[in-house]
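SAMPLE LOG
Freezer: B-3
Tube label: C17
Construct: single chain, 367 aa
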Amino acid sequence: MRDALGIRILPWLVWLCAVAGAIGLWRDPAIGEAPGFVEAVLVEVSAAEAGEIVALEVVVGQRVRAGEVVARLDGAAIEAELEILAAERLRKEAEIGAVEGEVAAELGAQRRDAAAQVDESERALERARAERSSRSAELGALRSQIEATRRLVDQRMVPRAELDALEVKAATIAGELAAAKAPAARLDGHAEGARGRESEAPAADAAAARASAPLKAELAAIAGRERLLRLRQAALELRAPIDGEVVAIHGRAGERASAGGSALTIAGSDPAAAGPVVVCLSEAQGARVRPGSAVLLSAPGAEGEPLRGRVAQVAAEVLELPPRCRRDPSIPAWGRAARVVVDDPQALVPGQSLGVTLLGGDAEEAS
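STRUCTURE (predicted):
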């Protein structure tokens, strides 16, 4: 009787113990441990334009500094264009020199002609003035002689014909002086005009600048094209945009890199470049972890208090986990990835492995 009763009660006792254990586990705030790692910020180094890779200056795993040359593309075509432009520039500079020289020579000739015209006009004017002055003096002397002769004629000491001859001569000279006024005025005007043309002759520098302006505009265009080619030439040296480690190279020397295509990948090493922590949850853990859950993070072999954080996101589906989260990287494992935000991200290093304790409760309550 007693044995039969024990046989009937024992399964119920086992079942009750299992239920109690499950309830205890469900109420236990600690969900368990999970592997994780700090997701590094990956930066792709790409070519601005297509070209053949002539040299790779780094290898996978090599650490680089921002600005360091990591690869070089073929720049023979750009160098040839620069040589053509250099020849065009020299030709334009020679043309500008020739034009400015011609302008200077022409202006010099114009100035010499103007100066000669001024000298000739002024000499002609001086001759005319001297001639008028001489004839005026002659007329004055002749008039004085006429007055003296008239007195002698009145006294019947000189014949009347002599006086008449003197008066005819004086009238002729007076007529010549009156007729010479217009030519003298014209000569004065010619001299003044020649002096004005000489003073108004354009400055050599200004005239040369106007004449060479179109050529100088072409020269400026050549200089602009050279600057653009220099920028393209500089872009053929691919440089690391950040401090970090080369994690992938997508081409080899001799291959052609496409414009905008990634030539290599660099993982940032600056703590500020660290991304969120990725935690690889088993299917069972993924079913129990919720956004806002508290976690503790510690690096293998690290001393001191673990870092605190909270779950920001849990993947909605079960997928194959990254190789670094598997016990054996060659054996696929499945689960759900979670992203964790750390209270002090400066203490982390991009790519660092972490052990994550899943506390289960809300992060604020856990703190």
